[in-house]
């Protein structure tokens, strides 16, 4: 069964997420379940559209140490099928979406699934703690 596409091609909000994700080393976009997913070659680090009810959201992997505190933040929620293994979701269609913060969440998620070579490439481009600079 083929899933219907959740977004129209060229959706400007999805495009902003796409640019953040594809700026990471060896990141690729793969459509799955009718939604864009972004992968560090194979493992997913961002899934756009947590559900039909919350299409403008990303599902991302947290750092294990930060996960409990993020769960307490009302901006985050558990997405269907991703509740385990430190995955959370956040909406990005709010007028006050903090795109810098979203970029940091995306980069953190990438670092959780990237292989050593990819992590090194990212570290060379943007050392941890230097802040996101896109």
Q: What's the tally of helices?
A: 4
CATH topology: Aspartate Aminotransferase, domain 1
Question: Can you tell me the CATH class?
Answer: Alpha Beta
- Percent of residues in helices comes to 25-40%
Domain module count: 1
Q: Biggest sheet: strands side by side, in what order?
A: 1-2-3-4-6-5
Low-pLDDT regions: none
How much of the sequence lies in strands comes to 15-25%
Quaternary organisation of the protein chains: single chain
Task: Please give the largest β-sheet.
Answer: 6 strands, antiparallel
The global form is: globular
CATH architecture title = Alpha-Beta Complex
Structural class: alpha+beta
The average pLDDT is 89
Number of β-strand runs:
6
What's the Cα radius of gyration? 14 Å
What is the CA–CA distance across the termini? 38 Å
SSE succession: HEEEEHEEHH
